[in-house]
Amino acid sequence: MEDFYKEYILDHYRNPRNFGELEAPDATAEDLNPLCGDRIRFDLRIDGDGRVSDVKFSGKGCAISQASASMLSESLKGEKLEDVARLSQDVVLENVGIGISPARMKCAMLGLKVVKSAALGEIATWPDEVPVAPSRAVNDTSR
Amino acid sequence: MIATRDTRAATIAADFPILAQTTSRGKRLAFLDSAASSQKPQAVIDALVHYYTHDNANIHRGVYELATRATDAFEGARAKVARFINAAEPAEIVWTRNSTEAINLVSFTWGVTNLKPGDVILTTELEHHSNLVPWQLLAAKTGAELRYITVDAHGVHELGDLDEKLRGVKLLAFTDVSNTLGTIAPVKMLVDAAHAVGAVVLVDGSQSVPHMKVDVRALDIDFFVASGHKMCGPTGIGFLYGKRSLLEAMPPFLTGGDMIREVGYEKTSFNELPWKFEAGTSNIADAVGLGAAVDYLEAVGMDWIAEHERSLTAYALDSMEPLVARGLAIYGPKDRAKRSGVISFNFADIHAHDMASILDTEGVCVRAGHHCTMPLMDKMGWPATARASFYLYNTEQDVDQLIFGLEKAATVFKL
Lengths: 143, 415
Ligand SMILES: Cc1ncc(COP(=O)(O)O)c(C=O)c1O
Prior knowledge:
The structure holds two protein chains of two kinds.
Chain A: H1 7-14, E1 27-33, E2 38-46, E3 52-60, H2 63-73, H3 81-85, H4 89-96, H5 105-120
Antiparallel strand pairs in A: 1-2, 2-3
Helix pairs in contact in A: 1-2, 2-4, 2-5
Chain B: H1 5-13, E1 30-31, H2 42-55, H3 65-84, E2 93-96, H4 99-114, E3 120-124, H5 133-142, E4 145-149, H6 162-165, E5 169-175, H7 187-196, E6 200-204, E7 223-227, E8 238-242, H8 244-249, E9 260-263, E10 268-270, H9 284-300, H10 302-320, E11 328-330, E12 342-347, H11 352-361, E13 364-365, E14 367-369, H12 374-380, E15 385-389, H13 396-412
Helix pairs in contact in B: 2-9, 3-9, 4-5, 10-13, 11-13
The complex binds pyridoxal-5'-phosphate (PLP).
Residues 98-100, 128, 130-131, 175, 179, 204, 206-207, 227, 372 of chain B line the site of pyridoxal-5'-phosphate.
C-alpha cells in the first residue's frame, strides 16, 4: 500500500490531465462511489470514424480515484468508441501499478466505470464487481 | 501503587480479545472507530456462548425449564437496560434491532397518528441519516413541516432563535452527541424548551449512552434510542425507551406473533407493554449479550469511562495541535467541554480515504467519509473527513500511533 502512493499518483492527483468539461460532448457519464462520495464525470468527443477525438474528466475525491481517472484519460484519444466500451480493469491496474487493497478497488475503478458507461450509453458493470450499494443511495454503511 | 487512568485502560483493553491481534503488516492494532461500532469484551462473548450452550429456547410461552431460563435471561437483560438509563420500569424498554429501527418505530406509530398538516418536526443539522430520513418521510406522509436547529462552523447548536423555531413544534428529535463532530447537545435545556410548547422529545442516544451516564427521567426525555453494538454489546440488538403513557397510546408497529393478547378471525387485541411492539421471535441471545454489556460497563463505571475519554481526547487534541501548522484541520467544537471522544479531521489536500488507507498501514483504524451525515458535510463544505473516536479501551499509545500515522501521511504526500 505504501508503494501505491507513488510519485506519479500524487502528480496526477495534484495536476490532473484532461481535467474539465467539454461543451456539448458526444458522450458523457457521471457516477459517484456512494461509500466515500468520490465523484467523476467523463465527457467524450467522437469523430466521424467513431474514434475519441477529445476527452475531459472532472470530479473530486481521493488520490486513487482521481489519479486513475487522469491516467485513463491520457490513453483514450484515437481509440474507437466500442473499444473504450470494452476496456477491462487491467488497464487501470497497469496504470496505477501495484497494490490496491480490496477496500479501495471501487475508488480505483470509478473512472473506468464512468468512461465505459459514457461509451456504452448505459451503466457499465463487470462480472466480478462486488455490488456494495446501489448508486446514489440516500443511506450508506460508512458510519 | 495507584494505577493511573491510562494503565487502567490498558487493563480494560485486555478484556477485549480482538484488540490483542497484530495486523497483516505486523502492526499493533489501534482501534479508533468505536463510534461506528465498539469491540466486545470477553464477558459479552461468553454470555452469548453461555446462552446458546445452556439456556437456548423460545421465550414466553414455554413451560419447560429451558424456556423459563431463556425468558428470565431475556427479560433480565431488559431490566438491566431499564436500570442503566433509569427508566421507571422495564416495560418502557422495547427491543429493536438498532437505533434506526427504534426511530422508525416511533415515526411509523406515534408520528403517523399524532402529526397533521401544518405541524412541525424540529431536528438539528447534525443528525445522522437515521434520525433524519425517517422524519423527512414522516413529514411527506403527514404534511408536517421539517425544520432545523442550525449549527455554526464548529458544529455547535445556534440557539438564539430557538423560541421562534419551536413555534408549532409537535416533535423535537435530536442527537445528544454528534457522531461526526462529537458535539454534546444541551439536552436538558432543549427538552424543557420543547415541553414548554407541548412537544414530544426523541433523543438519539446512539453516541451518548455508551460513553456517559444517561438518566432519561432526570432529563425528562420522552423517547430515547440506542444501539447495542456501540456499547460493547452484540450487533442486531438495540432499544427504544418510551414513557409508558406514550407507548400505551401508540398503535403497534409490526404485527403477528408475540405482540398479541387474543386473536380471532375477525378481531385481535394486542399484548401489553413492551411486547406489543415486539412482533415475532425476538433476538433473544443478543438481548442477553447486551445485558452482559451493561453489566460490564457498570462494573467499569460510566463516570470513569466519561472521564477517561475526556482526558484521552484532550491528549489527542494536544498531540495533533503541532500538525495544524502543516495543514491539519481539526473540526468540531473548540470548547472541549462541548465535545465527546470524537475527532474529525482532514490533513492538507490528503483525501480522508487516502488518510484512512495510510493509517491502516500503521494498524490505526479510523473511519473516512461522510459518517452518514451528508447534509452536514455539504453545509460545512467537506467532501469527506477522517474520524478517530475513543472508548474505554483506548490508551495514549493508540493516540501516539495515530500521530505517527499522521506524520507518515504527511511524508507520503510530501506535505
Ligand atoms: C448518532 C447516531 N444515530 C444513529 C445511528 C444509527 O445506528 P444504527 O446503524 O446502529 O441503527 C448512528 C450510528 O452510526 C449514530 O452515530
